[in-house]
């Protein structure tokens, strides 16, 4: 099997393999991502579902209703708390990896910002990166 990238949580109890490059990479500034990441935004690598394999006995799951009104299932490490991946019911063909967990950060190349309506005022967005006030493709 070819391998695009590997990654894992802070303590190493949860690991993952990505067999293909991401379809897209970007930053989400919504409140859910701010809370879940403990930061101003989450950097998301969006992979075709099935190209990411998460392993380890530390995986915990938390489901909630996202801004779309549909469910979001988040995988995180039960030992160290790092958010690792997420599955959004609204985009069932994709698996999201939280890019801060990737072993080789040079593979992370954000192409857009979404939900910038919720962006923290001290975050400056680079002008060459597409920005959407709401979800991807919104005005
Ligand atoms: Zn961990
Ligand atoms: Zn978000």
What's the SSE blueprint?
Layout: E1 5-8, E2 15-18, E3 24-28, H1 31-37, E4 42-48, E5 52-55, E6 59-65, E7 71-77, E8 83-88, E9 94-98, E10 112-114, E11 130-131
Parallel strand pairs: 3-10, 10-11
Antiparallel strand pairs: 1-2, 2-5, 3-4, 4-9, 6-7, 7-8, 8-9
The structure holds zinc ion (2 copies).
Describe it for me?
There is one protein chain. The protein has one helix and eleven strands. The protein has one domain: Metal Binding Protein, Guanine Nucleotide Exchange Factor, Chain A (Beta Complex), CATH 2.170.150. Strand 8 and strand 9 form a beta hairpin. With 139 residues, the chain is mainly beta. It has an eight-stranded mixed sheet. It has a three-stranded antiparallel sheet with strand order 1-2-5, with no helix packed on it. It binds zinc ion (2 copies).
Quickly describe the structure.
The longest helix is centred in the N-terminal third of the chain and has 7 residues, at 31-37. The chain has 139 residues and is mainly β.
Domains (count):
1
Q: Give me the Rg, rounded.
A: 14 Å
SSE order in H/E notation? EEEHEEEEEEEE
Helix/strand class = mainly beta
Distinct small-molecule ligands in the complex: zinc ion
CATH level-3 fold name = Metal Binding Protein, Guanine Nucleotide Exchange Factor, Chain A
Averaged pLDDT: 95
